[in-house]
Amino acid sequence: MRKKIVAGNWKMNMNLAEGLKFAESVSRYFNNKPAAKAEVILCTPFIHLGGVSAILENSKVASGAQNCASEESGAYTGEVSAGMIKSTGAKYVIIGHSERRSYYHEDDAILNRKTSMALKSGLKVIFCCGEVKEERETGKHFEVVKRQLGNGLFLHSGKEMAEVVIAYEPVWAIGTGLTATPDQAQEMHKFIRQLVSEKYGKEIAEDMTILYGGSCKPSNAAEIFSKPDVDGGLIGGASLKLDDFTAIVEAV
Questions:
Q1: Could you tell me if 134 and 170 are in contact, meaning their C-beta atoms sit under 8 angstroms apart?
Q2: DSSP string spanning 17-82?
Q3: What is the pLDDT along the chain (252 residues), one digit of tens a residue?
């Protein structure tokens, strides 16, 4: 049975003290619970990563970064390599989030290289894909996701894909209050799983964890997660509130 995952993406929120305190609260909450049916991940800004990873070291929660450099090392001022991330104790890294694609113009070639760097360093990858509103309205959403996965992710081997989680994020539903319906989420997740099957075979496709990201909250999480090809969520704003985040995890 494929792994269920709920990953919180803090984005650029909370100073160091606030982040460490919040990570302690999340860790304490899940450590006092019976074994969870979902793996819980906190993807933090870089400045939090070492401290949060230390807090989570012996807990039921894993840590991850929100991005990594496309190069291994060198004269790249301001960048943080996958190896540096791994050295903090983090286990995951988000690659290709829509905000990285849009605001920082990261294309498929760069994301493919970042994925290679992450996997080479021993990190697990949460690879994001998804369409903007105009692409959805013009019926290009399947075409867009197929291109993003084909050019940004599917150049890796089947063995490497065992270390990859795919996150579908309809960009039009991020921070807008809009949410894909459970049926829309299932339709795209099923399509993604079929693409993985065509490229890597049915077994790898069935083992692939595919997350939904896009204004997921306690009120809609259970319905979205009930769909057969939705294996959890990549949670943005709701991951900054303990009650909301834990409720979403428990909805799995």
A1: no
A2: HHHHHHHHHHHHHHHTSSPPSSEEEEEE-HHHHHHHHHHHTTSSEEEEES---SSSSSS-TT---H
A3: 799 999 999 999 999 999 999 999 999 999 988 767 899 999 999 999 999 999 999 999 999 999 999 999 999 999 999 999 999 999 999 999 999 999 999 999 999 999 999 999 999 999 999 999 999 999 999 999 999 999 999 999 999 999 999 999 999 988 777 778 999 999 999 999 999 999 999 999 999 999 999 889 999 999 999 999 999 999 999 999 999 999 999 998
- Short-list 206, 20, 49, CA closest to 123: 49
Q: Which residue has the tokens 């990859």?
A: 164
What is the CB neighbour count within 10 angstroms for residue 7?
24
Say which residues have a Cβ less than 8 Å from residue 10's Cβ, sequence separation at least 6: 19, 42, 43, 44, 45, 48, 66, 239, 240
What letters, b where the CB count within 10 A reaches 16 and e where it falls short, cover 180-212?
bebebbbbbbebbbebbeebbeeebbeebbbbb
**CA proximity to 227, closest of 246, 252, 194, 208:** 252
Distance CA 125, CA 175 (A): 23
The span from the CA of 242 to the CA of 40, in Å, is 13
The residues that are catalytic are 97, 169
State pTM to two decimals: 0.97
Query: Cα angle at 137 between 132 and 141, to 5 degrees?
Result: 55
* 93 beta partners: 65, 125
Residue 154: how many CA atoms within 13 Å on its side-chain side?
Answer: 20
